[in-house]
Amino acid sequence: QKDGYDWFMRKEIFEQPEAVANTLLGRFTEKGDLTLDEVRIPPEDLRRVNKIVIVACGTSFYAGLVAKYAIEHWTRVPCEVEIASEFRYRDPIIDPMTLVVTISQSGETADTLMAIRHAREQHAKVIAICNTNGATIPRESDAVIYTHAGPEIGVASTKGFLTQVMACYLLGLYLAQVRGMKYGDEIRAMMGELERMPGLIQQVLDDSQPVLDLAAQLKNRRSVLFLGRHVGYPVALEGALKLKELAYIHAEGFAAGELKHGPIALIEPGLPVFVVVPPRGRDQLHEKVVSNIQEIRARGAKTIVLAEEGDDVAERYADSFISLPPVSTLFQPLVATVALQLFACELATQMGHDVDQPRNLAKSVTVE
Ligand code: F6R
User: Fold this and answer.
1) Whole-angstrom distance between the N-terminal and C-terminal Cα of the chain?
2) Does ligand 1 have an atom closer than 6 angstroms to the CB of 156?
């Protein structure tokens, strides 16, 4: 049931505070440790891991890109992220010391399933992050972390993505705990921040009018670009994918630092460019992204800036400003993505498209 919403997708976007809270439920013991009961891989095996490889497709792949920043930062274990359909066919280097993490909302994606079968043949341990109880991918993995988002009906993934990102943070912190890289107080502080995320996601939803107004202004554009750095880069990719899928508009996400290596040639007067700005705490990155905004604005682009509330430095160069609640850089995807999901949903609605069933797409891609 759509519960009064026009689309399942919009309903699912608004369910995200609860979905993310459910992913977190019961992960924290009274002693203050993080527990992931489902990860039945012995801690000795997790301590031996010398490489983490994340394999997934589409939006789930972007969740994996976010995870890489967090997992490497917290565990200092090298982490690669790969599109499942590429991984399987390139003779990847994996062995029993590799931990393969697979991310799939449906748990039935054929490319991802083939990738984990290949990984297990090489005796790697496989942990699945999945939203569907008893699906094939978790059944064929050594362990599973369920995201508990509830059924996702809209073809475009929304709460699936946010809960995957949350599950990845939990896995990263758990690995850091098991491997002795992070201790009680640090883990507790980060878990405390994660526990505040549902309320902050709600804040983005409550303050979404500017995003909806922007969608009305930008319908029928031919092309839209998205820029970000660090974890803002996968957010940019996800923002672009949502727009392609739902509004059938050409949309591309770039790492903002790559702009001068080519994409800046695309900038022309009036071109809408979304820019995800890291929180000001990360001074260097913040400054660099702000200078990217100046560069594209000087060439006439219409800059749509997503930045922390009160970030007047970024706002100075914004034609439209979308304010985000203050969070740590690593956790910013949980709030920034929500604004981009709403934008794509609203734009596609205004253009008269079927948001829940975009053309040519299937919810679960069970063929390679
Ligand atoms: C995009 C989308 C797809 C899926 C991809 C993987 O909105 O839904 O890109 O993310 O097909 O699907 P799962 O996560 O079910 O393996």
Assistant:
1) 31
2) yes
